[in-house]
Specification:
Blueprint (H helix, E strand, L loop, with lengths): L21 E6 L6 H13 L4 E6 L2 H8 L6 H15 L5 E3 L2 H5 L5 H11 L4 E5 L1 H8 L4 H5 L3 E4 L8 H5 L4 E3 L1
Parallel strand pairs: 1-2, 1-4, 2-3, 4-5, 5-6
């Protein structure tokens, strides 16, 4: 059984990786511009995250959260793959297609659980004010906000009472 042994030259000193955690951009990506994606990548780099995960929501999830029509999943996912290819940092940026494989409604709790299992901790969710308010309205918000942190793209104009209650667990990106 291989235990990960490797050979290194005499005197080799491995430099510790200072990057930690995962920034997960949780959005539909229907109305997100390339400039907003660049801003998310800049935040991930400035805060030394190990990974930036772009998590596009399935149509059924978006319909249940906001009750409005949305583009097909594959079009939004293709946009993200094209942007990542143009951006050139494919090692740090991942596009999570778990919801695309499921092809149905996925509660945010299940999505967060999947992200926590698949990517290095701690987990930060990068969300719009609309998504943050929707997440804060769920009964499980108080349980999850203790395990993750939120970075909201802009100040929410009408913050949900749970968001104001847990103001110390989120900041503005």
């Amino acid at each position: 059984m291989d235990r990960g042994n490797r050979t290194v030259p005499f005197g080799h000193v491995e430099e510790p990786d200072t990057r930690k955690g995962t920034l997960a951009y949780y959005d539909t990506f229907q109305d997100v511009s390339e400039r907003q994606l660049e801003q998310a990548a800049a935040i991930a780099k400035a805060r030394s995250f190990a990974k930036l995960v772009l998590y596009p929501l399935h149509e059924e999830t978006a319909r249940r959260m906001w009750k409005r029509p949305i583009e097909p999943y594959y079009k939004r996912e293709d946009f993200l793959f094209d942007w990542r290819r143009e951006h050139g940092d494919e090692g740090m940026i991942a596009i999570e297609n778990w919801e695309g494989k499921r092809k149905k409604y996925t509660p945010i709790e299940a999505a967060i659980r999947h992200l926590m299992e698949a990517y290095p901790p701690p987990l930060f969710l990068y969300v719009s004010p609309e998504t943050a308010n929707a997440f804060a309205s769920y009964h499980s918000f108080e349980e999850w906000i203790g395990k993750i942190r939120l970075i909201i793209t802009e100040p929410p104009p009408d913050a949900h009472p749970n968001l104001t209650k847990f103001r110390h667990r989120w900041d503005i990106g």
